[in-house]
Every structure is written in C-alpha cells, then in structure tokens.
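Margin note: ligand = S-adenosylmethionine.
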Amino acid sequence: MRIDVFTLFPQWFNWFFQQRHLTNAIQSGGLTARLFNYRDYSPLKHGQVDDTPFGGGAGMVLRVDVVCAALSAVYGGDCRAVKRKQPVFLLSPRGRRLGSMLLDELGSCGDFTLLCGRYEGFDQRISDHLATEEISIGDYVLSGGELAAMVLVDALARRIPGALGAEDSVRLESFSAGLDGRREYPQYTKPANFHGWQVPDVLLSGNHAEIEKWRRKHLG
Ligand SMILES: C[S@@+](CC[C@H](N)C(=O)[O-])C[C@H]1O[C@@H](n2cnc3c(N)ncnc32)[C@H](O)[C@@H]1O
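Resulting structure:
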C-alpha cells in the first residue's frame, strides 16, 4: 500500500516515520509513504497556497488551483482524473468518521492519497471535484490535517504483517474480529500485588481455559 500525503508541513512527519512499527511496515514492503508539499507546486508568485474566504470571515482557505497543480504534478495529467486512478481522501472535521470499518476499507483499497488542510480548511471545490471522500478523525477541530493523517496511517500500518513484534497484538485487540469487534479485556503485569491491589487470581492460575473464559467475560 502506498500512501501519498499532501501537506504544508511535511517536516511534521519526520519523527512519525522513524517510529519502529512504521519502519518495520516500510521495510517489509507493506507500506510506502510519500510526502508532498503543496507549496512546491504552487503556480502562483511567491508560492502562495491560500487566500481570504469569499463572503468574508476570519482566516485563510487553501486554494483549489494550488491543490490541482500539486495533484497534476505528482500524478500527471488532469487533476480531476487522479481520483479515478486512486482514492483521494480529504481530511476534514466534516468527513466520515474514522473507525474500524473505514480502516478495513482503507486497508483493502490499495494506494491512496491524503490531503491535509490548514488554516480555515479547503476551498469546497477541492472536496467536490478533486477528492473521493472527506474523512474525520473525530468531532473536534485540529489545527491541521497532519495529526489526522498520522492517526490514520498509524492505525493502518500496525495491521501490516511484520509491523508489530507480536502478531497476536493485532489479531486480538479492541475492535478486532478475534474479539468479536468488542473492546479488549483488562490486562495486568507484575507485580501481582501492589499496595494491596491484587491481580485477579484466575490470571495467575495457569488454567488457560479459565483465563480465556475470564477474558471473554470482561470484554468491553
Ligand atoms: C483548523 S482546521 C479547519 C476547520 C474548519 N474551519 C471547520 O470549522 O470545520 C484545518 C484543517 O485541519 C484538519 N482537521 C481539523 N480537524 C480535523 C478532524 N477532526 N479530522 C480530520 N482533519 C481535521 C483538516 O484538514 C482541516 O482542513
């Protein structure tokens, strides 16, 4: 899966893509990530990327001609045709909420593009004509789409075989089919007793059938 991220702040991703599960996913060949800065493709003087909103109001809006130029330069041809080659997802608080079902879809849709907004967001024509769909990571407003893109990429990358040390982590985690889509049972580690806070006896019993029963009973 190749994920192309368009952003005004590619440097935000420097730390992110150095994290172990991401380097594992990349080295395994399961994930390729590319970063593109809208500003590098601006057809405007001085690399301008945004402008004031028609109708007035605070802030700046990302320009449709700039996003179009960036998509054309990276994929070639008409920017309107890009979404026919691979999905173009625009990150926005107005979008479809990211959850495990949408992650399943993203995990099987092949290569895709993420558009990160900034300031007041995107000119609506970007969503209407250049994007496949808007995606939101929750009902709150971030300063930019970069963290939203990282959340999405992180959640997808950990599902790539080889990304995590223990494959069971993904098979049996919250929302997975292995746990019937439910939230994970409580986990404990040493010490078994801390300030009188005891780990449930059954987890120390070594009786795997009973442990399994206890865990099933404590799914969220
Ligand atoms: C400050 S926000 C724009 C908010 C917009 N004016 C509004 O009121 O909905 C700037 C950018 O951050 C990103 N963003 C903010 N919150 C987000 C969320 N919950 N999910 C996904 N992206 C988000 C989007 O790319 C957005 O264009």
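The pocket of S-adenosylmethionine is lined by residues 91-94, 116-118, 120-122, 136-138, 140-145, 148 (CB under 6 Å).
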